[in-house]
Write a structure and sequence with these properties.
- This protein has 198 residues and is mainly alpha-helical.
- It has two domains: 90 residues, no CATH class; 103 residues, no CATH class.
- Helices cover 57% and strands 0% of the residues.
- The longest helix has 20 residues.
- The protein is elongated.
- The relative contact order is 0.09.
- The structure holds zinc ion.
């Protein structure tokens, strides 16, 4: 019976997914098995990861990667790095609403006043936020004195020298393949967020 259970367990591999519902110690996310079974109670101390931690908490936490004396522990550390990268790639999928409106903005299909004026010439195109310029996509989200404060707050620290409020320059930055995954994630996410909240 126990043997059968072992075989069955092999088939049941928990999909890490977004990692927030997967237990670091009690679920079968690691290729060599359930961590509490292969490491025993000492594992919590050796790894420095709480007994209640989810996979997401363990890999995204502030804890530094450790160098261990055993190969098994080091193998766990390297799988954690792989999971972490996968999680960063997946976070965007959690917010499809942001993604949709960003897609509309990229195509310039949002009803900004400059576009409304194209079919309704009598309309006032002044920006509703600052009342100080014509409301275009580029102005509304990034150049407007109101939204540029938010954009600067979100992005200046991340973009540093390449910080800009120009729509085309921002889109060019988005298209750049960035080796720093966290940085390019923050940029994509900040871009989507500002378009969504304004
Ligand atoms: Zn404005």
């Amino acid at each position: 019976m126990i043997k059968l259970w072992d075989t069955a367990k092999g088939f049941y591999k928990k999909e890490v997914g977004n990692g927030y519902n997967t237990s670091f110690w009690y679920d079968n996310w690691f290729t060599k098995g359930v961590l509490v079974e292969i490491l025993g109670p000492r594992g919590v101390i050796d790894m420095g990861i709480s007994n209640e931690a989810t996979v997401a908490e363990a890999v995204l936490g502030v804890r530094r990667r450790k160098r261990h004396r055993t190969e098994l522990l080091n193998a766990i550390e390297s799988e954690m790095v792989a999971v972490k990268e996968k999680l960063w790639e997946n976070v965007e999928d959690i917010t499809p609403k942001y993604a949709f409106i960003t897609w509309l903005a990229m195509l310039d299909r949002l009803t900004t006043m400059d576009r409304v004026a194209r079919w309704n010439s009598g309309v006032d195109v002044t920006c509703a936020l600052c009342k100080n310029a014509a409301e275009s996509r580029s102005h509304l989200f990034f150049e407007c004195s109101y939204s540029s404060q938010i954009w600067e707050h979100l992005m200046l620290g991340i973009l540093r020298g390449s910080y800009t409020t120009n729509w085309n320059a921002i889109v060019a930055l988005l298209k750049q393949s960035d080796r720093d995954k966290k940085r390019s994630f923050c940029l994509r996410y900040g871009f989507q967020t500002i378009i969504y909240v304004i």
